[in-house]
Design brief:
The complex is a heterodimer of chains A (997) and B (437).
Chain A: H1 2-11, E1 36-45, E2 51-60, E3 63-68, E4 77-81, E5 86-89, E6 91-96, H2 137-140, H3 145-154, E7 156-161, E8 168-176, H4 182-185, E9 186-196, H5 210-229, H6 238-246, E10 251-254, H7 258-271, E11 275-278, H8 287-292, E12 296-300, H9 312-316, H10 320-328, H11 332-339, E13 343-346, H12 355-365, H13 370-377, H14 379-384, E14 402-405, E15 416-421, E16 424-427, E17 438-444, E18 448-456, E19 461-466, E20 472-480, E21 483-488, E22 498-504, E23 510-517, E24 520-530, H15 561-571, E25 573-582, E26 590-598, E27 601-606, E28 616-619, E29 624-627, E30 629-634, H16 664-671, E31 674-679, E32 687-690, E33 692-695, H17 702-705, E34 712-717, H18 739-765, H19 778-787, E35 791-797, H20 800-813, E36 819-822, H21 830-836, E37 839-842, H22 860-866, E38 871-873, H23 878-881, H24 884-893, H25 899-904, H26 908-913, E39 931-934, E40 945-950, E41 953-957, H27 958-981
Parallel strand pairs in A: 1-4, 1-5, 6-7, 9-10, 10-11, 11-12, 12-13, 25-28, 25-29, 30-31, 34-35, 35-36, 36-37, 37-38
Antiparallel strand pairs in A: 1-2, 2-3, 5-14, 7-8, 8-9, 14-15, 15-16, 17-18, 17-24, 18-19, 19-20, 20-21, 21-22, 22-23, 23-24, 25-26, 26-27, 29-39, 31-33, 32-34, 39-40, 40-41
Helix pairs in contact in A: 5-6, 10-27, 18-19, 18-20
Chain B: E1 4-6, H1 8-16, E2 33-41, E3 47-56, E4 59-65, E5 78-81, E6 86-89, E7 91-96, H2 135-140, E8 143-148, E9 155-163, H3 169-172, E10 173-183, E11 188-192, E12 198-203, H4 207-225, H5 235-238, H6 241-245, E13 249-254, H7 257-268, E14 275-279, H8 287-292, E15 296-299, H9 319-326, E16 330-332, H10 339-342, H11 346-355, H12 360-365, H13 369-375, E17 392-395, E18 407-412, E19 415-416, H14 422-434
Parallel strand pairs in B: 1-5, 2-5, 2-6, 7-8, 10-13, 13-14, 14-15, 15-16
Antiparallel strand pairs in B: 2-3, 3-4, 6-17, 8-9, 9-10, 11-12, 17-18, 18-19
């Protein structure tokens, strides 16, 4: 019996190959079918844009033979009458892991004790474990009936598949979703190449951050170019070989959010490649920027589950971004279409793939045109794979991949009957099913009469039985033509359910048969009485938001485009009158003074300045006006990790690559009068990463936050952090572990950088380039810049010995050292620092949190200032950053600086340390209007910033803030109200914030 | 007896000569002192513009208005002219860990958290290090008293109120074993995206189990404490006796509104006479509830970020004003990151509270008398009222503003204390090296 069953299940496959030439031995007799199949009287979409009524599709040997309204059927054609049905080209999903092995969590190579400095991939592969272009999906692909069926049931015929592991992921395979063997399923073994900023299963420490991942990829491009050009290869590298081989293929770059989409674009521009960006469905939040990349996108429809806001206190913890994204995510596909961005749709990212059509239809309701949706499911993905002549449409000679449906796929209730792949059918829903929906008179044993209502989907109808007094009794109905099963309880408290089995009459109007009421046999029949009434189930109407409601940033206190425009308008030209002005330049305040601002610059300072009629007048009476605060040491607005701690030298990573322009800390710092900051890499390694020097412009792109005229900086660090003293007992492997090692590490890297530069220079001087080029090394590039005075160091430092040491390193390497940040024992070597014109950026009063700060004193800033050192007070902390005015005040208390000196520690002095002082940091004609209006003496704990201007734009206004609080509360309430109306059952388990990206 | 009249220039000068790293505890003061003509911030919300304060035998014997009080000549041994100066009760830091932790990152210098979840038996009292280099730094800013609390677990241990002056912990104790600290389990955990970025919140899946562990402990302890003799002694339960009989306070640490509601309602069920809420980030949402249950609040460090991105930028700063408006007893706490350093900034938290809605004297009250009330030491200290300990500070300017805070003289129980520290010593050492003024 067992044997027979298994043979049966094999031959049950409908997808009998039309191709005879195969290597698989045939067990039994050949069963090759070269029949013609005709699908007649159907509504057929030839492609996304054109459809034919009452048309015929003729298929043979897996290909389309003909299509049209007058197709002649050859003799021996199997004809399927598709009257009332609609045929579409089947869909293509370019982002799947169909048929890929799943590595169970416990089988992944574990991180060993302590750090893993080098790759553990055996073989001549890349130095970084996450660079694995040698991986080919075709080699690990194995067709899976269940997985394929899941996609086929949604209408997909082809899938691009990969395990998507690593930063350079290797090649993706294009496969059919047919129920077939692996040899036949693969259409293109190497169809595309994949990239991401996620190191995946790599266990190597480096990269530990987003900026590190970007660096790894950039270095891989440089390495691949170098490798390709080298005639005498110094190493054999399979990864770089593969990397180069994959370049001609479509390049797919997966990102986890819109900001990383922009990062991918930046990499594409650097290396002149074209990425198709697989996104996370939030492009609508930065649509203009996304459009301006000019890239094509693969877009998910993973609209978020509704947040849990039932409990009013839980709802407090659900942030506005989460709520707005819940409400607006379905706008995304339509918004992209309207913006003219080429995109394909994918089912990726759906926890439940069955939600795909619910969400596609929702997107259509939210503005995506059905034609746009169909294009994104058929033509566009085919075109992205350069296969638009083979798949994605139904034209003569193209692959016969199509679905037969009950009607318009973009309407609720439409079902797919069958999904044909290479001319072979796969049943999705029973094609023989009839539409039984309607009202019936149900008679049992000729003496009990009920009404039977059948409604719902054609394929999955639901039933209700009404008794004589019209009480609705929940009933079960199952139709398997021609057999029908119904069961229900005649009364709520009936001992037994009535169970009926019947057969459908040929006119589909009568069902009759026998059944059981407990043990009592019965006969029954149901006679069609009337068609189904209008659907009375009341679906609440949800408000469909518009793109005009999008806030920039997509965050509380973000502004809509309209709000932003109106602020820019009043900021164009204004005068602040009659304020006490601390210019930061002199040693006393200017009383009752006006400051005039036009086009973002300070144009005049004086008394009773004449204002043009366009100028906004702001009354500064009783208030103080100062330059904006600049934080020399900030870690706000950084995405994906502040430290790249995988290696002791991370000079290749750039904070500028990972600025998060949506961090609420930007707004909060503006509320504390901060207008500029150096976004610093952390202190996990002696040579840290490159800084991002920004103005706190709120609601702009990361690149637009950067200060165009700033010098380039890099973070170094000394002491306990770099020697990993407080990292736990396992972290004793990475060199250096002592202050002695730190010194030698610097010497070694700088000496090496000099040699590197010499090699680069002598190569570029060569006329005859027959010699191999030296390998470009991003780490060395940054060090060469330091040596050449093109990049400046700000070094995290505590104790005097190491400060002294690093000054000697700089001396011997002949570069000007810029700043000791923290520099908590700078006061002990203040004379040495002053002699070398090195600046100090320190804490007002931090100490006691580790050994090396036990002699940190709050008088540090006063001593270094009095010794003639340019001294700044910094925050290194989100909360303190918005109170830097108060931290500056502590230098008056500890060590007796004058108020003007104290104020300069957070304005002009950090501007000097960052080489910004020609443009900002004080109130001076011609400088940027980075200014703050304070309620009182800015050094006082009782004062607060009333207005903070960056480049003359009022980025924070305490009155506007008060209004926005009300607006935000209202918006939250409105969206929560929508959430509560939403009938969908899926709900996030607990209040969660959307991952900040 | 010679009547000395001192001015502050003299006093300050004498201290600047002092290079001692660590202040030496003062000898008992035998002389009586009169502070004349200063602005006296009583600590109870009142202020006397031109006040006099008389100190004898470590106690305040006179606090009044100089314009109305008649003084007998020579009634005091020493008179200090405080014209233009601000006089406050010594500031009181509740819920801090000075003396338990010297260098946060060094295990050997950390005595604040022990093994186990339920440790009411741990007593901060006996671990309090009077030779700490940190407490003198807090004193210089006016913080003279602190409640020293163990940390960690569900029940961290038993705190004591300590004076920041003394040769050893016996000397320094102000109120031994004043209360037990309970950390209510989190309903929601904050998601950490990575070391540096915070995300939203996620459900604490162990919440119910943790609450069960706690409530069973309280039920068992309550039953145990009904009897004084046991065949087998349970030191954990013994440490809970004071909580049930009202001689000690239960300090419940909770921030999220649902945690506060659940904690207080659950714990009230064990008929515990004195409960104080610590943290209370969301306490402004449920002031009626707190009032009805007569719960005082030690407000979490004001200098912190709002709990959600859309929280008002001043959400944390204005919390004291919200509680004041609702008539809830509260004082200001400094616990949190790097709290060894944070304690010295207690006065500036009060300054911030004043900037965001408290009146100046209410702000003073929030770190003096209110704190004394919350810790149950208000009969002895917390305000400048006759009969109380003479624990006070004199600042040349407004002590709640870092711009003007400058403590020039201070006494604890009438003994003038040295306002020096390892920091002032290093300052002087290097000023000297460079010849700076």
């Amino acid at each position: 019996m067992k044997k027979i069953l298994s043979t049966l299940s094999l031959s049950l496959s409908l997808a009998i190959s039309a191709v005879a030439q195969q290597t698989m031995p045939i067990n039994g007799t050949h069963d090759v079918r070269h029949s013609y199949y005709a699908f007649t009287h159907a509504h057929i979409y030839q492609d996304y844009a054109t459809s034919l009524d009452d048309a015929t599709l003729l298929v043979k040997d897996g290909n389309v033979v003909d299509i049209g309204t007058s197709v002649a059927l050859p003799k021996g054609t199997v004809v399927y009458d598709c009257k009332g049905k609609t045929i579409y080209p089947s869909f293509i999903d370019l982002y799947t892991s169909y048929g890929m092995p799943v590595i169970p969590a416990d089988k992944r190579p574990h991180k060993g004790p302590g750090p893993q400095m080098n790759t553990i991939t055996p073989g001549a592969f890349d130095a970084n474990q996450a660079v694995r272009p040698q991986d080919d999906a075709e080699e690990i692909f194995h067709a899976s009936y269940a997985e394929a069926a899941q996609y086929r049931n949604l209408g997909f015929g082809l899938a691009l598949t990969s395990d998507h592991d690593g930063i350079a992921q290797g090649s993706f395979a294009l496969v059919t979703l047919a129920d077939t063997n692996d040899q036949e399923a693969i259409l293109e073994g190497k169809a595309a190449a994949g990239y991401s900023l996620n190191k995946g299963s790599s266990t190597q420490d480096y990269p530990s951050s987003l900026m590190g991942a970007i660096s790894v990829l950039r270095q891989a491009y440089y390495d691949a170019t170098w490798y390709k050009g080298a005639k005498h290869k110094t190493e054999y590298n399979l990864s770089l070989e593969a990397f180069n081989e994959l370049q001609p293929l479509p390049q797919i770059f997966a990102v986890d959010g819109k900001l990383s989409a922009l990062r991918a674009d930046k990499i594409a521009r650097e290396f002149n490649v074209n990425y198709i960006i697989k996104s996370n469905g939030d492009e609508y939040e930065l649509l203009d920027a996304v459009k301006s990349t000019g890239r094509e996108f693969i877009v998910p429809v993973n609209f978020p589950d509704k947040p849990n806001v039932q409990d009013p206190y839980d709802a407090v913890m659900v942030n506005l971004t989460t709520l707005m994204h819940w409400q607006m995510a379905p706008l995304n596909p339509g918004a992209m279409e309207k913006a003219g961005i080429a995109f394909a749709l994918t089912a990726d990212g759906l926890k439940d793939k069955n939600a795909f059509w619910t969400n596609i239809r929702k997107a259509v309701k939210y503005g995506l045109t059905p034609q746009g949706a169909l294009k994104a499911l058929t033509y566009t993905p085919a075109q992205m794979m350069h296969m638009q002549d083979k798949v994605g449409s139904l034209k003569k000679g193209m692959m016969a991949n199509f679905i037969v449906t009950s009607g318009d796929m973009f309407k609720q209730g439409t079902v797919i009957y069958s999904n044909w792949i290479k001319g072979c059918p796969n049943q999705v829903n029973d094609t023989t099913n009839v539409d039984l929906r309607g009202n019936y008179t149900l008679t049992i044993n000729s003496n009990q009469t009920y009404t039977l209502e059948v409604k719902g989907d054609v394929a999955n109808p639901t039933a209700t039985v009404l008794d004589a007094p019209k009480h609705g009794l929940a009933a079960y109905i199952h139709v398997n033509n021609p057999m029908v099963t119904i069961s229900f309880r005649s009364k709520f408290d009936s001992a037994y359910a009535i169970r009926l089995n019947g057969l459908l009459s040929s006119d589909n109007k009568t069902i009759s048969g026998t059944g059981l009421d407990g043990t009592q046999a019965l006969t029954w029949q149901a006679v069609f009485a009337s068609p189904m009434g209008p659907d009375t189930t009341h679906e609440p109407v949800l408000t469909i938001p518009t793109l005009a409601q999008v806030r920039y940033p997509f965050q509380a206190y973000g502004r809509t485009k309209a709000e932003e425009d109106s602020i820019k308008k009043v900021s164009k030209e204004f005068v602040i009158r009659n304020a006490t002005v601390w210019t930061g330049e002199g040693d006393s305040a200017l009383l009752n003074t006006d400051v005039y601002v036009k086009d973002g610059k300070i144009t005049a300072i004086g008394k009773n300045l004449t204002a043009s009629k366009d100028a906004t007048v702001i009354d500064g009476t009783g208030k103080y006006l100062t330059a904006g605060i600049i934080d020399e040491h900030s870690h706000i607005a950084i995405q994906g990790g502040v430290n790249e701690d995988g290696e002791a030298n991370s000079s290749n990573v750039r904070i500028g690559d990972v600025i998060n322009s949506e961090d609420i800390s930007i707004y909060r710092s503006l509320s504390g009068g901060v207008t500029g900051a150096q976004l610093l890499h952390g202190s996990a390694n002696p040579i840290g990463g490159q800084s991002g020097i920004v103005k706190l412009r709120w609601g702009v792109l990361p690149e637009e936050m950067k200060i165009s005229y700033s010098s380039q900086f890099i973070k170094f660090a000394l002491g306990e952090n770099v020697k990993q003293s407080n990292w736990g007992d396992l972290q004793t492997v990475r060199y250096p572990q002592t202050r002695m090692g730190v010194e030698q590490f610097y010497y070694d890297r700088f000496i090496h950088a000099k040699e590197y530069e010499a090699a680069m220079k002598s190569y570029s001087a060569l006329k005859d380039k027959s010699m191999d080029a030296p390998r470009r090394d991003l780490q060395m590039d940054a060090l060469v810049e330091i040596l050449n005075g093109q990049r400046f160091i700000t070094c995290h430092s505590y104790v005097q010995s190491e400060i002294n040491m690093l000054m000697h390193v700089a001396d011997s390497m002949h570069f000007q050292f810029n700043t000791f940040t923290h520099g908590l024992e700078a006061y002990k070597v203040a004379d040495k620092l002053a002699a070398r014109h090195i600046g100090v950026s320190t804490f007002a009063d931090w100490w006691a949190y580790k050994m090396e700060v036990m002699e940190a004193i709050p008088y540090n800033a006063a001593i270094t200032t009095k010794m003639g050192i340019v001294t700044a007070i910094n925050s290194d902390d989100d909360e303190m950053q918005r109170r830097l005015n108060q931290e500056a005040a502590k230098t008056v208390k500890y060590g007796g600086l004058t108020e003007q000196q104290a104020w300069r520690t957070v304005t002009l002095n950090p501007a000097k340390l960052l080489h910004l002082d020609a443009h900002t940091g004080s109130i001076k004609v011609g400088k940027d209007a980075d200014i703050v209006l304070w309620s009182g003496n800015p050094l006082s704990v009782y004062s607060m910033a009333l207005k903070t201007f960056v480049d003359g734009v009022c980025e924070f206004d305490r009155q506007e803030d008060a209004a926005m609080r009300l607006e935000i509360a209202q918006e939250k309430a409105d969206i929560i109200n929508q959430v509560l109306k939403d009938p969908s059952k899926n709900m996030a388990g607990a209040p969660t914030g959307r991952r900040r990206r | 007896m010679k009547n000395t009249i001192l001015t502050f220039s003299l006093l300050v000068f004498s201290f600047s000569l002092c290079f001692a790293q660590q202040p030496i505890p003062a000898k008992p003061e035998t002389k009586s002192i009169l502070l004349m003509n200063g602005t006296v911030h009583i600590g109870n919300g009142q202020v006397i513009q031109n006040g006099v304060i008389g100190i004898k035998n470590g106690k305040l014997v006179l606090v009044g208005d100089a314009t109305t009080i008649k003084l007998e000549a020579g009634a005091y041994d020493t008179t200090i002219n405080c014209f233009g100066k601000q006089i406050y009760p010594g500031f009181i830091a509740p819920d801090c860990s000075l003396g338990l932790v010297e260098t946060e990152s060094v295990r050997a210098q950390t005595d604040v958290e022990d093994v186990g979840l339920l440790n009411p038996e741990l007593r901060s009292l006996i671990a309090f290090n009077t030779d700490s280099k940190i407490t003198p730094v807090a004193r210089i800013n006016g913080v003279l008293t602190g409640q020293i609390a163990p940390r960690g677990g569900l029940i961290s241990g038993t705190s004591s109120v300590m004076s920041f002056e003394g040769w050893n912990w016996e000397d320094a104790q102000y109120k031994a074993d004043d209360g037990v600290h309970l950390n209510w389990p989190e309903v929601l955990h904050r998601i950490r995206i990575n070391e540096d970025e915070l995300g939203g919140y996620t459900e604490n899946k162990n919440y119910n189990r943790q609450v069960q562990v706690l409530t069973k402990f309280f039920a068992d302890a309550q039953a145990y404490c009904q009897d004084t003799k046991h065949d087998e002694t349970n030191v954990k339960f013994e440490a809970m006796r004071g909580i049930f009989n009202g001689s000690e306070t239960l300090f419940i640490h909770a921030d999220f509104v649902k945690e506060i509601l659940a904690a207080i309602t659950t714990i009230k069920g064990f008929t515990i006479p004195k409960i104080v809420l610590v943290g209370g980030r969301d306490s402004w949402m449920i002031t009626d509830f707190l009032k009805k249950n007569n719960i005082a609040v030690i407000v979490r460090r004001l200098h912190s970020q709002p709990g959600t991105p859309e929280g008002d930028v001043d959400e944390t700063y204005k919390l004291p004003a919200e509680l004041q408006k609702a008539g809830i007893l509260f004082c200001l706490g400094t616990a949190g990151d790097m709290e060894q350093n944070a304690t010295r900034n207690l006065p500036f938290l009060a300054g911030t509270a004043a900037a965001y809605g408290l009146s100046p004297e209410e702000a003073v009250e929030s770190i003096t008398l209110n704190a004394a009330k919350v810790l149950g030491i208000d009969a002895q200290t917390g305000s400048l009222e006759p009969g109380k300990d003479a624990t006070l500070i004199i600042s040349s300017g407004d002590a709640l503003d870092m711009r003007t805070n400058n403590i020039i003289w201070a006494c604890i129980k009438g003994k003038a204390i040295q306002l020096t520290s390892v920091q002032t010593a290093l300052y002087n050492k290097y000023k000297d090296k460079y010849g700076l003024k």
